[in-house]
Batch of 3 targets.
Target 1
Amino acid sequence: MTSIPLIKSQPHPCSYLAGHTAQASFVSPAFPMTALLYSQLIGYGFRRSGDDVYKPSCPACTLCIPSRLLAKDFKPNRSQKRCQKTNHNTEVIIKPPLYEQAHYDLYLRYQLSRHHEDGMADCTPEDYIGFLSSTWCNTHFVEFSIANKLAAVAVVDQLDNALSAVYTFYDPDLADHSLGTYAVLWQVQQALQQQREFVYLGFWVDNSQKMAYKSHFQPLQLLSNGQWF
């Protein structure tokens, strides 16, 4: 057993639920994090943001619930099958987690269209790459292109027995392609091909419109009181 030091953040506005205050417990930056250790911590509800590993630690709220898919049990619904058909000509290229101007420009367009109220559209190139990449994790930037045009980027961590969907951003003009959904479907297929058991989807938050899409992937496993169900 390894003792992992945690540091609790200061209270701050919740990014999921308006009017709520959030806190998180971070693994101390002085602690040597590895992809293997993170592969274990994610099973206990931790996530990463850049090199930081954290879990929600809100005194008066437990609405952020870790979620994952068991890849072999997932079956696409009718809408997801239509999404796969719509994107049957979408090209995929797996790249290292390095800064590319085209990715950054697309990220800003996505933030301005979808999350302009969060101020994410004002992030610098350093903020962007610091948020999505990691110095210790095996991360890929997965490009999705339609008609030779960059359409979406999915940031995916490869863990010991799972894939973790870190973040996906896409061209707002291609909303009818449901590229966020397609990116998750692609990751499930990759997990099956690589014989990895799970695809982690981050936190599911009841009553949060941003997180509602996760409930469309069934059967969705949730973590409660240390147990997945």
Target 2
Amino acid sequence: MPILKVAGLGEFEVPPGKRLVKALVEEAGSDQLHACGGGARCTTCRVRFTEGEPNRMTQAERDVLAARGVTEPGVRLSCQIACDADMTVELISRLEGSGRKDQGGAVAENIEPEPVWTDR
């Protein structure tokens, strides 16, 4: 099983292929935001990879990051990433201090929209 390391929270075993946003909430117990419910529309689920950043991304992730002007290396949308290997991340978008009433809507098991994969 892949190991997910979350800065300030610890290390967690994650079922292979689980969406990163779900692993951050369910395995790591974090307050990671996902305002759009994990559909690559809002960028509230951003994380910063410090190790193990996947080499590919969905076209939806690429498009929304570009539209929002997110260009920082290692910053990705956790809703568009499957935990297929060990990875280390820092949380960027958390409920704490956000002023939001909750983390966001329910997140589907599979990546949405249907992924079209591209190289980073």
Target 3
Amino acid sequence: MSLLGLYNVLNTYLIIGAVLFGMGIYGMVTRRTLIGMLIAAELILAGSSVNFMAFNRFTAPDPVTGQVFTLFIMAIAAAEAAIGLSIIIAVYGHFKSIDAEDTAQLKG
């Protein structure tokens, strides 16, 4: 199998999606700043989108199903980024830091 023939194999896309998802989980566990955690969450959503599109292309009888799921994931990612950034800006305004451990002092 040549390198150019790998685009037509389900396992290639599943590996790419798993790598993105794994990098996102690793980032969520190891990052201390809220911005790093937000980027890691975006990687998790991107990995799941790649998997939905791969299963859509290779196994789904209806070609629209995976695309609709991916559009929903993109909408959730956009909303999460907007709300997350507004929370991060509010935390920075209060604590002058975006370290996740500083938010333990929040009351509510």
